[in-house]
Amino acid sequence: MRTLAFLSGIHSRSEELIDSTKAFDRAGISDSRLEMCYREDTRKLIGLEVEAELDFICDGMLRWHDPLRPFIRSLEGVVPGPYYRWFETNTFFRKPIVKGELSIAGNSLEQLFFLDLLPSDKDSLVVLPGPYTLSRLSEDEYYGDVLSLVPAYAKTLDYTVRRLSSARKLGVVLSEPCLVYDGTRPDKKALSVIVEEIEKIASNSSFCLVHTYFGDASKILNLLDSFSKPWIGVDLTETYVEALNAFHGKKVALGILDSLSPIVETPSSLKRLFDKVKKIDFASIAFCPNTDLRYLPREISDNKIRSLKLLKKMMED
Amino acid sequence: MYATQEIGSLPKPRWYVRSRRGLPATYEDVDEARYWGVKLGIEDHGELIRLLRKPAGSQRREKVERWAITYAIRFLESAGLDRVYTGEVSRVEMYEHVAGKIGGFKQLGRVQSIDNRYYKVFVVEDSISRVAPIYIQEFKIAKEVARKELKVPIAGPYTLADWTLDLYYTSRLQQPSMNLSKVGLEARRNLVEDITRKVLRPEVRALIESGATWIQVDEPAVTAHPNNEDMKLFVESFNMLTKGFSAKFSLHNCQGRYDVLSKYVAELKNCHQLALEFANRDSLSLGTEDEDRPGYRELKLFEQNGFNGNYGIGVLHVLDYVGPPQENAPCEGETLIESPELVRDRLIYATKVIGDPSRISANPDCGLRTRRNWATIMKKLANMVKGARQAELL
Question: What is the complex's ipTM, to 2 decimals?
Fold first, then answer.
């Protein structure tokens, strides 16, 4: 069985980049200089991903201040609103306020990622907020309910994926923490709409992962089991491996790197986990961080990327 | 009368930042020190100018720090506030200032919190201890300088624990058969208790012995984990921290889940005031009806849940504002300057909810160090004071 490994969210900024962003805020450096710093740091990260032999390369989204805002800014009909805490972390996002019909704003999609820096001889992916999480975290002044808002966001995501993939083959990770987080899990009525909309996006993509985190995936097994085309991502710091028995025959991405722990995972520290995973008959398996690695200092995050290579090798052996 | 107060930090003056870094002052630094020295009527500020022209060194640094505290206090007093402090100018950042003085903590690196703002994250690797006084020196200077009532902000134990990565407490508890989430909660409980007992209570005792009468416990992490166990842990830590001391204690929280926090505040045994963030969530239109003040919607939950203490109502937005310009809150760069009328209406609405205006003070949502320009901040604070005076007339 082939095992894949990749990053699944926003990576930590380097100390140098942090200094540059702070200097920019103090008007100490220009827009263009800051852009060069982002590009330089992205290049370094991509180099590390290549060195770690990751199967998909992503740009690390170092420019993204939060997991929603850049995408929201690429849309019309929605604006970034007040700051709210991002789940149970010490980071914040601007709540999207939906004020009208959603559509893509001009040529803004090209600003989302540094696609030109991704190596042309490797598979690549982009990470976008999923339609349910976008809907659940928005303040909706236009559509009236989540059942209408999910298809509206999904349509813009589908367009985005197709547009970004037009120049090169790209996989997509749809971040969907709200599918599993206590208090935001969808009700039965929403389930079929979510599955239908995500399947549409997945059908236009060479690789699509619905990545769930900050909650126990075993609590929405019915929903996850309904997906046919996309991979399913689970947060192993929240979900017992035994619960994944329900996913036999499925394509599963294991969020195995703990983005909130400074301890860098090693094959020996994960031995017990591997023994359990081996017994489940997945159609395909992938390893990734459970969520964004940006909650850790860069040096630790980089070491976690290196550990992915070792983990993958251990599984294949 | 609505008392007005600051809530914590101010941006550090440039001349002070360069001094902390051991760099010589530039002409611009000297001009800035002179400009604000004159504007704030600071006695003998010529001495600072002479000091800034001297070569950098540790002795100079200490003296410049005293001047920075003096400038910040005079700045807040000049804006017309009734309760002031040092703008936390001598602290690097609220978490790092404490974490750097705790034995058993090791600094790792910086991580992002909000946009281009970061904090240094620490990991606890060993049994903890208070290795140096944390706030005393700053308070002693403030006490000598201030002409208004002092309210001393300190970092709360729950937040300090929540922002710290843990290798020590978890490893002591971890056994193969234990549920991971239970280990996590128990480890956090042990860390919170140790921070409270070994680090913060000795500090609070020393502050009170030095003359502090009001201590504001900053707990931005409260409601980050909105489950009952974590909220109970927060309540226990606040009560443990304040128990037996004869000073006023208040709680400051921002970007919190007030539907959650409101259910627990009645259990805080020694909480004189709740200082909360509302302006960030509010509309910029005038008006004092429910539909005009969506950001203050959850204020009534605290009353409904039996909190009978006082409130510090956040009436000034402290983060970057991106949106269309508004008549009642024009922008300078990305900083909103709320009009006195907008502040007035927010206070009147809060009074309608709470009933008794004497239980209400006006303050910014949070510390103002997120704004870079003292002149802009002065406009915001002065309008807050004017708005409070206008609200009293109605």
Answer: 0.92
